[in-house]
Amino acid sequence: MANTNDFFVSAPGKAILHGEHAVVHGKVALAVSLNLRTYLRLETTTTGKVCINLPNIDTFLCWNLTELKQLLPYSSKGEEMKRLDPELVQRLREFVGVTNGNLDTCNMATLSFLYLYLSLFGSSELPSLTLSVWSELPTGAGLGSSAAYSVCLAAALLSARGAIPTPLKEWDHTGRWCQEDLELINIHMVLYFPSVPLLRILLTNTKVPRSTKVLVARVKDKINKFPSIMTPVLDSVDAVSCTCEKVLSEMTSEPITGEHYNILEELIDINQHHLNVMGVGHPALDTLCRVTLTRGLHSKLTGAGGGGCGITLLRPETDSVVVQSTVQDLRDCGFDCWETSIGGPGVQQHAPLSVKEEVLEILNRY
């Protein structure tokens, strides 16, 4: 059971529909929210400590407020920090024990939390609190788990600091912040399409690890080597994103037709070929596309590529037997696969009593 004084917030993952890698080169990338969410619970305490609980990676860490206060640069203790403080970043890296530049998931999550916590509360008395964060999203799979985590942290800590109001009204189950407050929270750097129809998809995790940094460098090298070939490819990727945006807009303002889905499927196929040309495909992703196509379904990678995840569009009339058979075929390939949807709500606050019991149970594991 949740304490009615606890603060709950959630944020969705994201899928890149089109434009992977193009945004790095000044083009449009089109991202939509996934109906898979990251949940955060903030509890105020009187322990004299600040703690963070991360059940996804079996991590629970606590620090005394006195030792955290010592990390603040003297120049920052009297005022709220408005920009990135490199001195604080370096102090935190040393405090966490990261000095060689190799950050694992736990270290990145810890540094993000401590930096935001100290940045927001460093000019006042540091509060005792415990944050528990759990995600339905797989980490490191190109589905925006890091962004969702950061958005939840920002929303919860900004609200606790009083920098933004809590949007939840009495008797409401959920509340959304106004646009001005969302701008303080938002950290996305792609065209995040806010109004899309609810589209059914299969989400498949090939479980092939990949490095976004390596893949970005690969694309850049190819562009430098073949500029006259790759520049038109990037222009075409940009056009695919813009065309998809136009179709999604039509689907929210007029009756949805089979032709809308025909265009979306064609764009998926075109974009997947673009991504292979750019050098960010992978045999596992080829297998995903081939297996789903035998069932008449269209798939593409999402995120950086080179493995990771792919999405498969499901039409409204797609039979459940076809869906279940496709999911089983993909699991037989060694992949994780489940049905979900895109077009869900963005970051939002939840009333404590409205949070699902299974989510509460996980958030309470520490």
Explain the overall architecture.
By secondary structure, the chain is of the alpha+beta class. It has two domains: 206 residues, 2-Layer Sandwich (Ribosomal Protein S5, domain 2); 144 residues, 2-Layer Sandwich (Alpha-Beta Plaits). It is built from eleven helices and twelve strands. The strands form two sheets. Strands 1, 2, 3, 4, 5, 6, 7 and 12 form an eight-stranded mixed beta sheet that branches. Helix 2 packs across helix 3 and helix 6 packs across helix 7. About 2% of the residues have low confidence.
Q: What's the quick description here?
A:
With 366 residues, the chain is an alpha+beta fold. The protein has helices at 65-69, 86-96, 105-121, 145-161, 179-185, 212-225, 227-253, 258-277, 283-293, 320-332, 357-363; strands at residues 7-18, 30-44, 49-54, 59-64, 129-135, 174-175, 191-192, 199-205, 298-302, 309-314, 336-342, 348-350. 41% of the residues lie in helices and 21% in strands.
Structural class of the helix and strand makeup? alpha+beta
* Average pLDDT figure: 86
What is the CATH third-level topology name of the largest domain?
Ribosomal Protein S5, domain 2
The Cα radius of gyration reads: 22 Å
What CATH first level of the largest domain would be assigned? Alpha Beta
- The oligomeric status of these chains comes to single chain
For the secondary structure, the number of strands is: 12
How many domain units? Answer: 2
N-to-C SSE string, H for helix and E for strand: EEEEHHHEHEHEEHHHHEEHEEH
- Examine the secondary-structure arrangement and name the CATH architecture of the largest domain: 2-Layer Sandwich
Shape: globular
Family: Belongs to the GHMP kinase family. Mevalonate kinase subfamily.
GO cellular component, one term: cytosol
EC number: 2.7.1.36
InterPro entries: GHMP_kinase_C_dom, GHMP_kinase_C_sf, GHMP_kinase_N_dom, GHMP_knse_ATP-bd_CS, Mev_gal_kin, Ribosomal_Su5_D2-typ_SF, Ribsml_uS5_D2-typ_fold_subgr
